[in-house]
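Suppose a classmate hands you a notebook page containing two proteins, each written out with its sequence and a corresponding row of structure tokens. How would you begin to make sense of it? This section walks through that situation. The first entry is reproduced here exactly as it would appear on such a page.
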Amino acid sequence: MPKKTQNKKAAAAPAEKTTKSKSAKSATPAKNAASKAVGKSNKKATTSKASAAKGKALQATKAIRKGTAAKSTKKVRTNVHFFRPKTLHLKRNPKYPRKAVPAVNKLDQWRVIKHPLTTESAMKKIEDHNTLVFIVDLQANKNHIKDAIQKMYEIKALKVNTLIRPDGTKKAYVRLTGDYDALDVANKIGII
């Protein structure tokens, strides 16, 4: 008996399958029509995307051919010489001093002028030419001597002549301006 019930069930099962397949077939044309409509709209969307992408690609190729650098006009040079362009020159602004202690001026007025000369020829220069004669440092130049005379004796020198003597010292002839008398200054210094 159980075998017969199984057969009945087996016979019923194919009938169910056929009914399902018929209903599926009847539903497929509607689905097919809908899917075709969606497919057409998808095709339109893909074609519009493709054309946009194609347009972008064409623009990119044009840009590559053209190049990124803009065309610039060449400067007309009217001179054969080239001068380097003037750029900004900033003053030095150091973060720390390069020397711990600033250098002291070694050639001050006391070192520049060693002593006045009191020979007969020097005295004659004082009387006749309004000129004082000094022995000065070898490294001192005429400007140093002028400044030292100004600082020490508060007199203005018109002109300074120098020479190096055979004994290796430097002699300076200091001509005073018309405002000062060499005799008075010599008395003040203590030469005479």
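The notebook's second entry, a different protein, reads as follows.
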Amino acid sequence: MPTRLHKNRKKRGHVSAGHGRIGKHRKHPSGRGNVGAFTHHRINFDKYHPGYLGKIGMRHFHYQKGQTHKPTINVDRVLSLVSAQTLANGTKEALPVIDVTRSGFWKVLGNGPQPSQPVIVKAKFFTRKAEEKIKAAGGACVLTA
């Protein structure tokens, strides 16, 4: 934009150029950015950004994500891991075996209805409810390493 079109041209000859004699137009009168959050801007931060300041929870030194990795599956979905043909071929003597670890699951949870037919389920972990439902259907729970 050419200089002649700038707003400031109209203010030439006026001492403070619209910024006032008392307050003065200074660079960063209250500090740059979030400075003063704990002191002179405290009221604003508490009013408009509650929870921004302070800490919450416990510290966990040397946190390794792999130790909390435990993919889960519910009892009602266990039968869907194998084909219908495998389930149909199962007999009373040779129950179909479902290894949930091969599908990437480690723990079997007890949510949903119990399996419609007896099966042998292999997993690293079972909840109490899951074990009860599998055994109530006539199946078995096998722990794997």
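A careful reader of the second entry would note: DSSP finds four helices and six strands in the chain.
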